[in-house]
Amino acid sequence: MNISILGSTGSIGTQALAVADDLKGIKDITVKALSGNRNVALLEAQARKYTPDIVAAFDEKCASDLKVRLADTSCRVLSGEDGLIAVAAHPDSEMVLSAIVGFSGLIPTMHAIDEKKDIALANKETLVTAGSLFMDKIAENGVKLLPVDSEHCAIFQCLEGNRGNKIRKILLTASGGPFFGKTYDGLKNVTKEMALRHPTWSMGAKITIDSATLMNKGLEIIEAKWLFGVDIDNIEVVVQRESIIHSMVEYEDLSVIAQMSLPSMKHPIQYAFTYPNRLPSADPRLSLKDIGTLTFSEPDEDTFKCLRLAKEAGRQGGIMPTVLNAANEEAVEQFLDGKITFTQIGDLVEKALSDYKNITNPTIDEILRVNQEVRELFK
Ligand code: NAD
Ligand code: MG
Predict the structure, then answer these.
(1) Nearest to 299 by CA among 245, 238, 246
(2) pLDDT at 27 over 90
(3) CB-CB contact of 171 with 256 (8 Å)
(4) CA nearest to 326, candidates 379, 277, 275, 290
């Protein structure tokens, strides 16, 4: 299978290339195009190893540097949004892995769908901000949409063999993050270093902070609503501290189907690459005897208000999830830059939501405009 990877230098992108290595001789994956942003050395190394036709660095200066470094190869080096779009639209790619972090992934991923590529979707922010338009485009173009988020991949698997049966509830599991059990006051003095230390997953900085505020779970509720057509109020978050059960689906007959594995993003990536087949994996095996106990509890939405805010924005729909997402991306960046405290992330998102009037059924231009406007408030 030929693929393009948007965000090949990130946590998901590098693990996807490792999965391609693992699958060699089992299912060969040829990488036709890659994109990153500023990690020129890694982009160069990936270009030399996987010999794609196109490599794009979003940052113009980094792209110029990369061009010099790859002058002895036949690889085309591109930059900016046009470069990302060329990666997404490579004529020989059958699937595009969308693994850019944040809103910047939206336009290239939409282009990939227009070019009739199957989509392996890690970039949840695109569904949060433009879920309705995104799902319409998937349906219009008749392409496959395979979730590369551990919970959504789990739900997708729990639905296999049960399509057409009514879902009673989605039980979306959460690790609870590094601050599980803390009170709101206890969160006031947490540092960036503490927030970046996730108990069960190793991921990019933005999603790691989202996991600490529980905004990640809020974004995942909205993601699940679009992927599986379930109302926000039928999606229940269950804290599963060990991150072994990746999510569950409850049907009308009250049967609950769960998907389990050790926490590794290589699992959902491989499933997206090999679907509908289940092929051998290089990951370690799950031993429930070694795990011993699985624990479950309710999330604390008073302490972790981002989860509550995301649910509210999801229920309101329209432009509100765009406002939520843009404010969160900016607030997280400010927290990572040491400009605001941890609890201010939720405060700033709450303020942005209260400042906005909803727009129902926003167009792509309205989404782009509001996304930009909200970000300006943070400058
Ligand atoms: P990351 O920060 O490790 O990597 C992000 C990638 O996006 C890099 O390749 C970077 O170069 C690229 N990028 C950043 N800004 C860009 C821009 N403006 N234009 C073009 N490219 C840009 O992030 P990650 O942890 O790999 O997460 C990627 C996406 O996958 C996110 O949407 C995240 O929510 C989702 N996701 C990640 C995990 C995980 O385990 N890491 C799990 C589930 C979902
Ligand atoms: Mg997840």
Answers:
(1) 238
(2) yes
(3) yes
(4) 379
Choosing from 4, 5, 12, 34 the residue with most ligand 1 atoms within 8 A of its CB, the one to mutate for a pocket test is 12
Nearest CA among 224, 212, 38, 6 for reference residue 124: 224
Distance CA 233, CA 246 (A): 19
Residue 218: the pLDDT is: 98
Confidence of residue 201 (pLDDT cuts 50, 70, 90): confident
Q: Are 4 and 34 in contact (CB under 8 A)?
A: yes
| Residues contacting residue 293 through CB under 8 Å, at least 6 positions apart | 242
Closest by Cα among 148, 173, 165, 167 to 258 = 173
Please confirm whether the linkage preceding 276 is cis (ω < 30° from 0).
Answer: yes
Protein residues whose CB sits closer than 6 Å to any atom of ligand 1: 7-13, 36-37, 39, 58, 84, 99-101, 104, 122-125, 149, 201, 203-204, 206-207, 265
Stretch 293-319: mean pLDDT: 98
Give pLDDT, residue 78.
Answer: 98
* Structure confidence at residue 375 as a pLDDT band (50, 70, 90): very high
- Identity of the residue numbered 214: L
Residue 135 is predicted with a pLDDT of: 98
Q: How far is CA 50 from the centre of its chain?
A: 24
**What residue's CA is closest to ligand 1, atom 43?**
149
Residue 92, SS3?
coil
List the one residue out of 356, 350, 347 whose CA is nearest residue 374.
356
Nearest protein CA to atom 30 of ligand 1, as residue: 122
Tokens of 254: 């009250």
Query: Are the beta carbons of 220 and 171 closer than 8 angstroms?
Result: no
pLDDT of residue 175: 96
Among the bound ligands, the one closest to the CA of 198:
1
373 Cβ contact list (under 8 Å, min separation 6): none
Tokens 């890690």 map to which residue? 122
Tell me how far apart the alpha carbons of residues 164 and 251 are, in angstroms, rounded to a whole number. 11
Which two tokens mark 323?
């406002």
Q: How far apart are CA 370 and CA 326, in angstroms?
A: 9
- Sheet with 76-79: list strands edge to edge: 76-79, 54-57, 30-36, 2-6, 95-98, 118-121, 145-147
